[in-house]
Amino acid sequence: MVVRSRDRAGHLSPEARYQFFVSETSPVLTVDGDVRGGKPFRLHIAPGPNTGQIVRYIYTYTIDGETNTVIPDADGTASIELTARANSFFTVSVSSLSANGWVSPATTWSQYVDTAPAVRSSTYPEGDVAGGGVGIAGTFTFAPRSDGVVSYVYSFDYGTPVTVPAGPDGTATVTWTPDTAGSHQLDVYAVAADGSESDTHYYYLNVNGS
Fold first, then answer.
1. What is the mean pLDDT of residues 154-175?
2. Taking the model in full, what pTM does it have?
3. In terms of domain of life, where is this protein from (predicted)?
4. Which of 29, 78, 102, 159 could form a cystine bridge with 98, CB 3.0-4.6 A?
5. Which one is the CATH code of 118-207: 2.60.40.10, 3.40.190.80, 3.40.50.2300, 3.20.190.10?
6. SS3 of residue 107 by DSSP
């Protein structure tokens, strides 16, 4: 805030500046586990710092477009169950209403529900960090982000696709040995028992030079 005084002759004084900060009052949002398309997930809401007694939370979920409310427990927390759609981007916005009528700014949580399988490799991590080396075998573990996965189809560097069955836990592990250094690409998607296919995970990796 900037304040100046004006006298009767119209002269303005130097400026006086007053700075202040408003404490955070937005709710805190957390989610249990992975969010999968077509499956319910639970969103936990906790009161933001510097807020008084919360009487309700007001939330909007872009999947249904409705504005709803939920009454918190005695400790000020609440949880809501929502269902995500596969291959969709969604947002949940939550504000709190305090007993004195104050409505906090909204906290927004967004996510894209990706059905592409997760890929892990300790020898050849995803991204720019180079690993392994020419002639050094690396293992790649595929894990499902969709239900009913029975197999995975993968290829390295646009080669012939290979199908590998999923284990009882839905995962599969394959081994690959690079013959050149530099960047490489692994493409993999999951196949369900009904024949439906997941999104494709494009896994980029770098192999150490000799």
1. 97
2. 0.61
3. Bacteria
4. 102
5. 2.60.40.10
6. strand
* CB of 66 closer than 8 Å to CB of 47: no
> Could you write out the DSSP letters of every residue in 190-201?
EEETTS-B-PPE
Closest CA to 124 of 177, 53, 70: 177
* CB-based burial, 70-99: b 16+ in 10 Å, e otherwise: eebeeebebebebebebeeebebbbbbbbe
Contacts of 135 (CB under 8 A, 6+ apart): 177, 178, 179
Of 24, 19, 41, 23, the residue nearest 32 (C-alpha): 41
Residue with tokens 């700075």: 19
Residue 49 pLDDT level (bands cut at 50, 70, 90) = confident
CATH code: domain 28-112 is 2.60.40.10
196 touches 151 (CB < 8 A): no
What's phi and psi for 39, nearest 5 deg?
Answer: -115, 145
Report the alpha-carbon distance of residue 130 to residue 207 in Å, rounded: 5
- Do the domains 118-207 and 28-112 match in fold? yes
Would you kindly state where each structural domain of the chain is located, as residue ranges?
28-112, 118-207
Q: Is 166 exposed, middle or buried (0-12, 13-18, 19+ CB in 10 A)?
A: buried
